[in-house]
Amino acid sequence: MIFPIFRFLRAALATCVLLLSLGLSVGVAPAFAIEKSSAPETAEVYFIAPQDGETVEATFAVKFGLSGMGIAPAGIDRQNTGHHHLLVDRVELPDLDAPLPGGDPSVRHFGGGQTETELALEPGKHTLQLVLGNYMHIPHDRPVVSEPISVTVK
Asked: Does residue 29 carry a pLDDT above 50?
């Protein structure tokens, strides 16, 4: 059937656009404008676990919550959807007008549509925050960002 070919080409084009847009981080000017996806006013991203202030083991489960929108993997452009990005020990939010940076250990991508993960951190106090990205890892027009939480690793 011809339709799967169109889906493949659309995904390939989205991947190419994402790779070109990452040129922003190395000083290369992109040849296109970044288009953000819209997010409903009611959209909210939050932590199901752990809870703010919780003491956790060195390896612990992190469960992401989302209301007012749905989850879709990176590369799949569906209205009112996105995928999670977990910020670990970030002092500031990354640029919310560009694709969330890859290769930065403080920004963990869950482009497969995952809603939970196991996280291993060194002992001490850490901060966690969630940012929802669209199919190209770009935060939405009204960024859907959680409140930061802190955890203490034993």
From this structure: no
Q: What domain range is 105 assigned to?
A: 34-153
User: Which bin fits 34, alpha (ψ -120 to 50), beta or left (φ > 0)?
Assistant: beta
Tens of pLDDT, residue by residue over 66-109, are: 999 999 999 999 999 999 999 999 999 999 999 999 889 999 99
Q: What CATH number should be reported for the domain holding residue 98?
A: 2.60.40.10
Per the CB < 8 A criterion, the answer to whether 144 and 131 are in contact is yes
Token pair listed for 41: 């006013």
How far apart CA 75 and CA 108 sit, in angstroms, is 17
CB-facing half-sphere around the CA of 45: CA atoms within 13 A? 31
pTM of the model: 0.79
pLDDT at 25: 39
Give tens-digit pLDDT for 117-152. 999 999 999 999 999 999 999 999 999 999 999 999
Kindly state whether residue 4 falls inside one of the protein's structural domains.
Answer: no
Give the up-direction half-sphere exposure of residue 148: CA atoms within 13 A in the CB hemisphere. 13
**99 vs 79: CA distance, rounded Å:** 18
